[in-house]
Amino acid sequence: MLNRFRALLVALEEGSLNRAATRLHLSQPALSRQIQSLEEELGGRLLERLPSGVQPTALGHETVARLRPVLECFDTTITELRSIARGHRRELRVGFIGSAAQCYLTPALIPLRQAHEDVKVKLLDLTPGEQIRALRAGEIDLAMIGQEGASLAREFHTRLLASLGVLVVLPRDHRLAKRKQLALAELRSEGFIGAPDAAAPGRNRWVTRLCRAAGFRPKFLGNGDSIEASFSLAVSEGAVMLVPAYFKERAYPGLVLIPVSDPGARWQFLLMWQRGRSSPPATTLVDALLEVAKRAAARV
């Protein structure tokens, strides 16, 4: 069908079946058969044959007006798909945890833009759960995710961006709020704020694993759907939270963040992307993120 539409457009552009056939590398009878077949398909005449050439009928005018944008869109799509097949994309979609953007993502975008000026970067602030769903659906090209993604290593390509320490989040008026560091065992009697699996798959299991290594099982008082909601719950409930060390870069009203002293308390920051879907811009960004993380680790 597309070839017949193209034949009609070329015939009208040339105003002659002979010239159109030459341009399309067809014989004139073959071109005439294509147009006749299209006319039968649509149920009406598309061309008026005149001694001077051909011109469109009313149906021909309408057909051209409606089909030209369709064919242009089709041609553009095919070009883009061929570019993707060669490993080139015009857009790079990155899912990230908002709290980590300032530390890692923002500086890594500089070398990406220097190497791929024509690539549009689309940044999506998503929870870990949203990133996993978007990665599976092909809606993002790269996920910057926590240890929530560790169980998916067989499904996606995975690189460790950083192994970070852990902070205890406490209300500013908490009895332990003035400490310089805390051992997890000192939180034995505290209530914890967790995260629902839909937002952060496995986050509460991670907290439980750390606490059990310290000799107790944490008591969760509630889950926050977002980090802001979790912090508010910590203040209102007089509860505690465990978060990655990158949170220390910012101040949070009503809260203090204290390093955990347990050597085994670590949070894994991961990069993930679909197998077989890495493009040169994505590779450049992964390398830049790893370099930023390496420099950050050297400063600690």
Task: Describe this structure as you would to a colleague.
The protein is 43% helix and 22% strand. α1 packs across α2 (17-24) and α1 crosses α4. It folds into three domains: 2-85, Arc Repressor Mutant, subunit A (Orthogonal Bundle), CATH 1.10.10; 91-163 and 268-299, 3-Layer(aba) Sandwich (D-Maltodextrin-Binding Protein, domain 2); 166-265, D-Maltodextrin-Binding Protein, domain 2, CATH 3.40.190.10. With 300 residues, it is an alpha/beta fold. The chain has nine helices and twelve strands.
Count the DSSP helices: 9
From the coordinates shown, what is the CATH architecture of the largest domain? 3-Layer(aba) Sandwich
The general outline is elongated
How much helix, percentage-wise, in residues? Answer: 40-55%
Look at the helices and sheets and give the structural class. alpha/beta
Q: Largest beta sheet: what is the strand line-up? A: 4-3-5-12-6
- The CATH class name of the largest domain reads Alpha Beta
Q: What's the alpha carbon Rg, rounded to whole Å?
A: 30 Å
Query: CATH H-level name of the largest domain... which superfamily?
Result: Periplasmic binding protein-like II
**Per DSSP, what share of the residues sits in E-state strands of 2 or more residues?**
15-25%
Elements, N to C (H/E): HHHEEHEHEHEEEEHEHEEEH
Low-confidence segments, given as residue ranges, are none
Distance between the termini: 64 Å
Number of domains in the coordinates?
A: 3
Largest sheet: 5 strands, mixed
User: Would you report the number of β strands?
Assistant: 12
- Briefly note the CATH topology name of the largest domain: D-Maltodextrin-Binding Protein, domain 2
* Average pLDDT score: 88
